[in-house]
Write a structure and sequence with these properties.
By secondary structure, this protein is an alpha/beta fold. It has helices at residues 6-15, 28-37, 54-67; strands spanning 20-22, 45-48, 77-80.
């Protein structure tokens, strides 16, 4: 998916019902919000701070994966670390 624009990544994720994990806090959130406002599917977006330690991010992603339910993150943007 390298080189794809943000809206194409979100289209692909929605078509495959996948949550997107990204460091792109500048534009990805805007495109995700636009999708939701337009009534389009957006299974979820997880914004990961580049300042976070890898171990904390891994723990947070595992927690989300184990405790989340199908569709729970539809239309949501979550920021890591959770704290």
């Amino acid at each position: 998916m390298t080189g794809m624009d943000d809206s194409a990544v979100l289209d692909w994720a929605a078509a495959n019902q996948l949550i997107v994990l990204t460091h792109d806090v500048c534009t990805m959130t805007r495109y995700a919000t636009e999708r939701v406002a337009a009534g389009m599917s957006m299974p979820g977006l997880i914004e990961i701070s580049r300042k976070s330690s890898l171990s904390v991010v891994i723990e947070d992603v595992i927690l989300i994966a184990e405790c989340g339910t199908d569709g729970e993150f539809e239309g949501q943007v979550i920021y890591l670390p959770l704290q």
